[in-house]
């Protein structure tokens, strides 16, 4: 009897241990924290934990595969490492999944070790609690803290202004009192006799001063009109609101997306086109919400998610079904910021390809404390720091000419070195103090016909 009870107790302990470790058998024997890093690096382009993106939601995928097909982690290892090979072997469940998700090819991952896959599966089974993103209230409180000294300064200015007005009023009252006393004295009659009583008398007395003032006013008016005319069409600092909010700081700054991924014709074309919505969908087909840490002051995650939804509305994309519905709204009417007049010829490729090194070097020499690493920034400013893009320079003819006069031609370029060989030797003799440096104006960069034809 005692022996039977011993074996019974041992059996219960064994069953308990088996049950307690069964979760580990199905995906929790890896490191969820490391799995999170691997998941974000390899899987987030097509998958999310809690919803379908390009592929299915992966939270609880180990248990789901076991429930649906009676398969274990070994099958998942084969699927993740090389799903094509698994499908080619005739695996029924692998081919069912392939058909279910519109025959979308999944990337193979032969570089992932068994431990890496175990860590990813552990993350999908038991994801660690994510640290909350900085809330909009935090940004607002930070802004309020920053604004507090400014508010205090404003209050001080108002108080000082009121005191100054009060002092001025007291001074006026004192002067009025003095005038009243003066009116009661005999000196007032003599003072009135000596005063000028008409404008003609004033003009006759001070006509030289009057003519001088009129001449000065005429000169100032002429200068003002000339200055106003010269700045017609110059919109430095112009930053209009767009129909869909797009932060270059998030895309080009925080996420390091290359300019030419969206503006593909800027390098090899005459103009840099406005990207179509299909370019946006290359990424936002899989990115339906904003999970970045950066939040612009006054904006929260819900704001950015709402802007992504606008992209879906204009393209007719259904994020739940992961397909186009064919029911899209009207085209997005973007407001153009940089727009050369029709009488000006400007070729992007000429500057971005042929002049890239020369422009960057020239800009960095003139701005040692504000250097650039991409040629685009020389004209458009540091776009990767702008939440709302603005016109960073004047884009006047004088601005272009000044650049052509100070930018050296890249003589290490094989074509330039051979084509301008004789000119280079001539300039060395003509301007020995400059070492014969060739700037863009020396090769016709300020000829009228280069830009106006």
Q: Could you characterize what this model shows?
A:
Among the domains are: 2-125, Cytochrome Bc1 Complex, Chain D, domain 2 (Orthogonal Bundle), CATH 1.10.760; 200-232; 396-453, no CATH class. The chain starts with a helix and ends with a helix. Strand 1 (317-318) and strand 2 (323-324) form a beta hairpin. The chain has a two-stranded antiparallel sheet. The model is unreliable at 14-27 and 135-144 (pLDDT under 50). The chain has helices at 2-28, 32-42, 61-69, 73-88, 92-100, 114-125, 136-183, 187-194, 199-230, 248-254, 259-262, 265-268, 277-284, 301-315, 348-354, 356-366, 376-380, 397-406, 414-419, 421-430, 448-451; strands at residues 317-318, 323-324. With 453 residues, the chain is mainly α. The protein is extended. Helix 13 packs across helix 14 (301-315). The chain is built from 21 helices and two strands. 58% of the residues lie in helices and 1% in strands.
């Amino acid at each position: 009897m005692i022996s039977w009870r011993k074996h019974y107790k041992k059996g219960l302990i064994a069953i308990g241990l088996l049950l307690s470790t069964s979760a580990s058998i199905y995906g929790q024997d890896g490191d969820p924290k490391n799995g999170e890093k691997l998941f974000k690096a390899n899987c987030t382009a097509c998958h999310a934990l809690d919803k379908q993106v390009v592929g299915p939601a992966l939270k609880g995928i180990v248990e789901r595969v076991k429930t649906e097909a009676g398969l274990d982690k070994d099958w998942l290892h084969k699927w993740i490492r090389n799903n094509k090979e698994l499908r080619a072997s005739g695996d029924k469940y692998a081919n069912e999944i392939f058909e279910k998700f519109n025959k979308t090819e999944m990337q193979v991952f032969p570089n992932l070790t068994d431990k890496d896959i175990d860590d990813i599966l552990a993350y999908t089974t038991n994801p660690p609690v994510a640290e909350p993103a900085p809330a909009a209230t935090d940004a607002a409180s930070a802004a309020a803290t920053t604004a507090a000294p400014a508010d205090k300064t404003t209050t001080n200015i108002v108080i000082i202004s009121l005191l100054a007005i009060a002092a001025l009023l007291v001074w006026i009252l004192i002067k009025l009192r003095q005038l009243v006393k003066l009116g009661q004295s005999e000196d007032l009659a003599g003072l009135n006799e000596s005063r000028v009583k008409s404008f003609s008398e004033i003009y006759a007395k001070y006509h030289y001063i009057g003519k001088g003032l009129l001449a000065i006013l005429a000169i100032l008016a002429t200068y003002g009109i000339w200055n106003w005319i010269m700045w017609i069409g110059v919109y430095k600092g112009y930053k209009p609101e767009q129909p869909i909010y797009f932060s270059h700081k998030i895309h080009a700054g925080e996420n390091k997306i290359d300019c030419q991924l969206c503006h593909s014709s800027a390098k090899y074309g005459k103009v840099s086109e406005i990207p179509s919505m299909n370019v946006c969908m290359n990424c936002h087909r899989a990115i339906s919400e904003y999970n970045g840490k950066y939040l612009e002051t006054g904006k929260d995650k819900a704001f950015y998610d709402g802007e992504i939804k606008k992209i879906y509305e204009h393209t007719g994309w259904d994020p739940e079904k992961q397909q186009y519905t064919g029911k899209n709204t009207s085209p997005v009417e973007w407001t153009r910021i940089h727009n050369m007049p029709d009488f000006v010829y400007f070729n992007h490729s000429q500057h971005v390809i042929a002049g890239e090194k020369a422009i960057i070097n020239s800009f960095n020499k003139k701005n040692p404390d504000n250097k650039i690493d991409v040629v685009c920034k020389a004209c458009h400013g540091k776009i990767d720091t702008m939440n709302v893009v603005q016109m960073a320079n004047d884009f006047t003819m004088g601005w272009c000419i000044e650049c052509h006069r100070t930018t050296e031609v890249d003589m290490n370029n094989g074509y330039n070195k051979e084509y301008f060989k004789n000119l280079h030797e001539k300039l060395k003799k003509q301007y020995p103090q400059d070492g014969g440096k060739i700037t863009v104006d020396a090769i016709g960069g300020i000829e009228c016909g280069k830009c106006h034809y």
